[in-house]
Amino acid sequence: MREFACIVETEHGIWVEPLITDSCIGCTNSSCAKRGKAFIVSNPQNIPVQNGDIVRITASARNQAIQAIAALFFPLCAAVGGYQIAGIIAAHIGIAVHDGIQAAGVLIGLFSASAIVYWLNRSKLNFSKPEIAEIIKKRARQ
After folding, report:
1. 63-69, long-range: CB within 8 Å, 24+ apart, which pairs?
2. What is the pLDDT of residues 110-129, one digit of tens each?
3. N or C terminus of the chain with fewer C-beta within 10 Å?
4. Residue 54: which residues within 8 A CB-CB, separation 6 or more?
5. Which residue in 47, 43, 49, 38 sits closest to 16, CA to CA?
């Protein structure tokens, strides 16, 4: 996530354009930075902002924790479950249980859970928006 953004609209939600300053890391000058695609952010601290302000945006720590659990622990648990279920299914259909069967169960569990997490992140889950943390540079008042 880009940390700095320029506010472009405040009437229908707060819309920002990220400032891409890879070539000049310490620079917050909006005139030399490239602009990214606009997106909406939240303002939980009710910081008074207006169009043209340069702000620092952050992701919610709570949402990052939820995403870590979903992306890491769910596939891990599915892999362990695949290991257990592969042995049960193999014994039930009369195949000798060996390491290859259980390894296949681990891989099936891991990849299917990873595919579910990927699909949910791309289509269904709507975590809260990035948040405005502070104003870096106020637009000159007229």
Report:
1. 63/127, 63/128, 66/127, 67/121, 67/127
2. 999 989 888 877 775 666 67
3. C
4. 4, 5, 6, 7, 19, 28, 30, 135, 136, 137
5. 38
CA distances from 60 to 11, 12, 23 (A): 23, 22, 27
For 86, the token pair is: 């592969």
**In this predicted model, which residue has the larger pLDDT, 37 or 34?**
37
Task: Give the model confidence (pLDDT) of 43-69 as tens digits.
Answer: 888 888 888 889 998 888 887 888 888
* DSSP H or E segment with residue 57: strand 54-58
- Check residue 124 and report its DSSP letter: I
User: Running DSSP on this structure, what letter comes out for residue 24?
Assistant: S
